[in-house]
Amino acid sequence: MSVGEGGATGRWPGGGAAGWQVPAAPVRDAVTAPATLDYYLVHPGPAGGEPRGRPEGLVVEEFEYAADHSAARLHSAAWTPQDGGWWSSADFSRTMRLDAALRRRVVAVARPDAAAAYHELGGGDLPDEGTLRGHFHDPAPLATAPLRLTPGHPAAGPGETRVYRVLFADALGPDGLAHLRATWRMTVAGDAGDPGARVLGVARRRVGDDAFTWHLRRIGAGGPWCLDLTVDLAGGRDDTVRPMLRELTTTLRMRGLLPVTVERFS
Question: Is the Cβ–Cβ distance between 229 and 164 less than 8 Å?
């Protein structure tokens, strides 16, 4: 089978009946469970068009993290009514991030909306997340070596500072940017209408004694977006890092950005 209008290879049918929509998923601005999966619906639609019509199927993904919370692998599984079963494809996950036409057909949703679509498409009850993970057979490896911006090695334990970059495919529109600036109470750092502006907002939060600062950034004019997170750890533990990365990434994902990887810079 082919992906359809997106032009990518994989086991995905093209076409589909119009006139059916899963209710739009509410934006999730606070995520407290870092172990949940990411859910997407794939809709039919012409290249360059908006997602529309009855979804063709579901994609479920999960990043696997290294001990320092950088992304090591991307696991995925997909389901369509035509196949009747779940299949795993690292190539399809990569294509979702490289093919802009396919990406415009992919809509991030919360699990209840994915479950509703799965049921309406004839799949019955959506399996629990442990069962869904059992369909992950073809992970996409990601770079795990920290990209050091400074020479030497950072101090370990209390007083350690780390910098992470979450890279996304696609771009935020004006409404999405305005929503994030309001949700995160960001300090506006650049004019989104200026193609030369790179940092478009800065926000801060403390979790216990740990301090987090993140910059919403464009990489080049018309290029991808990223979130740079600086973590100042007060103690010898780093268990606040992954829930924060998860929360921020999910907020951006539900605004239409597709996460590609999480790199550690220091």
Answer: yes
Three-point CA angle 186, 188, 191, nearest 5°: 145
27, 179 contact by CB (below 8 A): yes
The model's pTM: 0.82
* 61-75 confidence digits (pLDDT tens): 999 999 999 999 999
User: Range of 182's domain?
Assistant: 161-264
Classify each residue of 99-120 as buried b or exposed e, where b means 16 or more C-beta atoms within 10 Å of its C-beta: bebbbbbbbbbebebbbbbbee
Q: Per the domain annotation, does 28 fall within a domain? A: no
Domain shared by 77 and 47, yes or no: yes
Q: For the CA atoms of 109, 110, 112, 118, what is the dihedral angle to 10 degrees? A: 40
What digits encode the pLDDT tens for the residues 156-176?
Answer: 456 899 999 999 998 888 899
